[in-house]
Each structure stands twice: as structure tokens, then as C-alpha cells.
Write a structure and sequence with these properties.
It contains four helices and four strands. It is an alpha+beta fold. The protein has a single domain, classed as 2-Layer Sandwich (Alpha-Beta Plaits), CATH 3.30.70.100.
Length: 124
């Protein structure tokens, strides 16, 4: 019986460990969201400016080299899912949420996926 309980607890741990990180700090939470389609400084600025207007978001840091977005937010005003949706609404993939098609089409060419003819190309 203990072995089954251990296996269930271990499986639960593994399934939650594969998702992005959310750290609780009182009334604030810090979420690290995978943003695999972020490619350049323009992408960084677009997401940071867009999320700063979201209710409850207090800090946004996009790292386009690591392809992550770290967001600090008030838990009583927004949540993790709303933030991922907001990133998708400005044209970028966020964890398991795909980018909004219309917003993606309006991105500059350098901010689009390489399969769509975008990307920064090789820097020399």
C-alpha cells in the first residue's frame, strides 16, 4: 500500500515538475513561462510593453536568448493562465498556448518563425 502511495506521489511530482515554474511570495507570484518564438529585442519589447498594461502584472523580464519570460504578478488580480493568454494575444507562443493567428501575422518579419520566412538569420 505504501509503495502505491509513493508511486502516485512520485508521478504527481513528475507531472507538475514538467510545467513552468511558479513561485509564490505572499500576494505576489513569479511565473517563468517558456516563449519559444521570441527571437529578438523587438519581440522582447513587444511582450514587455503588452504585459505591463495587464491588470495585476508588476514586473516583466523577457530573455530572448533563453526563450523565457519571467512575470511577477498580484494573485488577486490575475493568474498564470491569463498571462499566457496575454502573451499569445500579442503574437507569441507561451508554454502550451499557441499564438493568436491574427496577432502573429501582424508581427514584423524578423519576429516570425523561421519556417514562415522570419527569424534573425545568422549574425556575422
Amino acid at each position: 500500500m505504501k509503495r502505491i502511495q509513493f508511486l502516485i506521489a512520485f508521478a504527481t511530482f513528475l507531472s507538475t515538475a514538467s510545467f513552468s515554474q511558479v513561485v509564490k511570495k505572499g500576494a505576489y507570484e513569479i511565473a517563468t513561462i517558456k516563449t519559444p518564438t521570441v527571437q529578438c529585442e523587438q519581440c522582447k519589447e513587444k511582450i514587455e510593453n503588452y504585459l505591463k498594461r495587464e491588470d495585476g502584472v508588476t514586473k516583466v523580464v523577457v530573455d530572448y536568448k533563453k526563450k523565457t519570460t519571467k512575470v511577477t504578478y498580484l494573485v488577486d488580480r490575475t493568474n498564470y493562465e491569463n498571462i499566457k493568454t496575454a502573451i499569445a494575444n500579442c503574437g507569441y507562443d507561451a508554454d502550451d498556448v499557441a499564438a493568436d493567428k491574427d496577432a502573429y501575422q501582424n508581427l514584423p518579419k524578423c519576429c516570425k518563425k523561421p519556417v514562415d520566412g522570419g527569424g534573425m538569420g545568422k549574425q556575422q
